[in-house]
Amino acid sequence: MPTKSKANAPKEFKIPDGLGDLPLPLLIYLPDSKEIHANRAFERLFGPVPPSRFSGRPAIALVHERPVHESVFSLPGRHEGFVVESVEGLKIPVELRISPLNAGGRSASLVLFEDVTAKLELERQLIENHVALTQAFADLKHTQSALTQAAKLASLGELSSGIAHELNQPLQAILGFSQELQQFEPLSPSGKEFLSDIIHASKKMAEIIKSLRSFAREAGDEVVDTSLEHAIREAAKLVNHSLLQRGISLEIRSGSHAPLVSANPIQLEQVFVNLLSNAMDAIEEAHAGKGTITVSISESADGVRVSVADDGCGMSEEVRQRIFDPFFTTKETGKGTGLGLSITHGILEKIGARVEVLSTPGHGTRFELTFRPAGRIKKKGEAA
Ligand code: ADP
Could you tell me if 27 and 9 are in contact, meaning their C-beta atoms sit under 8 angstroms apart? Predict the structure, then answer.
């Protein structure tokens, strides 16, 4: 008669032939005796597993890079993230598929080792492709918006060039005849006054046409070494009357050198007139009657930097995104055309200058322009 302990001892287990010959590496784990049995495919790949009772150590030796206890073998389901070392010393990423098994009346776990090298490689490639695709999409969107901007400016340029050309001829005739009429005597005092009004209005129209032509790049693209400080001071002269009228102070800060940049002097002046005019409008909107605009010129590693800062109303992020769009304006009808900054952008782009806009609603705006320096730097006081 068998002793009580022998009767209670678990029956000896032998891996069934069907599983032993299966080409998939697998283990059978018997939790009651902590035995572990490997099939031939497993042993070919990872070496033999000691047939002795399982102490937990073989599993730890087998399964790297993730602390594992043999209790994982009792958890049915899929377990990812294990790396197993093969007999040749190769580290093979595996997924464990564990399912309960009846091993001759004893409960056991069937642990399948699935080599996921190819799957992980595919996943890695997928992630790489996804990153590349996201980057390409962002680049495409950027290019698309640059192209849209260029297309809008090009068609606007053509249109304004055509209109400017058509209007300029009759306007020159009106101006010429009016000036000639002034020589005719006798003219009544009110006749003289009308005539001078006509001449004044015609000259104003000629100015508008000139700026339209400049927008259409008809002003001549001659680029020379130009003093930034000179262009800023000339622009300041043009807006000086408005500054005084609105109680706005303008401070121009420049170092001991006046850096030169390659640009068309008239267009450069136009850039600063546009920026100063917008700064004045923003200040007036925030607190009419007082305010400060600061223009600073400095040299940085990547070129000559000009910052035009105001303490005006600032702008929201949505507005900031659109300010360079032709015809975009937040100003009331009759006050804004929405062309100033798109012209500015076009001029700066042409000479390879960069523009950045930093703005805080309620506090002010800073336009930061970075110009490529011309061949040399002009000393302050040196003739232009
Ligand atoms: P316009 O001045 O005719 O509106 P712009 O192209 O010069 O056209 O400017 C477009 C818009 O950009 C303005 O209507 C305004 O909303 C915004 N903007 C430009 N400069 C500033 C500034 N310094 N502060 C706040 N908003 C500004």
Answer: no
Tally of helices (H runs) and strands (E runs) in the chain: 10, 14
3-state SS assignment for residue 88: coil
**Do 47 and 127 touch, CB atoms closer than 8 A?**
no
- How many angstroms is it from 244 CA to the middle of ligand 1? 21
Task: Compare 358 and 223 and report the one with higher pLDDT.
Answer: 358
Residue type, 282: A
| Ligand 1 close to Cβ of residue 16 (< 6 A) | no
Count of Cβ atoms closer than 10 Å to residue 197 Cβ: 11
- Report CA(329)–ligand 1 centroid distance (Å): 6
**Pairing between strand 291-300 and 303-310?**
antiparallel
Please name which of 90, 51, 54 lies closest in space to residue 70, comparing C-alpha atoms.
Answer: 54
- Confirm or reject: Cβ of 282 under 6 Å from ligand 1: yes
pLDDT digits (tens, 9 = 90+) for 145-204: 767 766 666 666 677 777 888 888 889 999 999 988 888 777 788 888 888 889 988 887
Q: Please tell me the residue having the least CA distance from ligand 1 atom 13.
A: 329
Q: Are the C-beta atoms of residues 67 and 75 closer than 8 Å to each other?
A: no
Q: Is the CB of 259 under 6 A from ligand 1?
A: no
User: From the CB of 307, is ligand 1 less than 6 Å away?
Assistant: no
DSSP lists the bridge partners of residue 112 as 26, 97
- Nearest-CA residue for ligand 1 atom 17 is 323
| Best probe residue, ligand 1, of 208, 274, 278 (max atoms within 8 Å of C-beta) | 278
**Quick one: DSSP state of residue 301?**
T
* pTM of the entire predicted model: 0.52
DSSP 312: S
List pLDDT tens digits, range 27-75.
Answer: 888 888 877 888 898 888 877 765 444 444 444 445 544 545 566 777 8
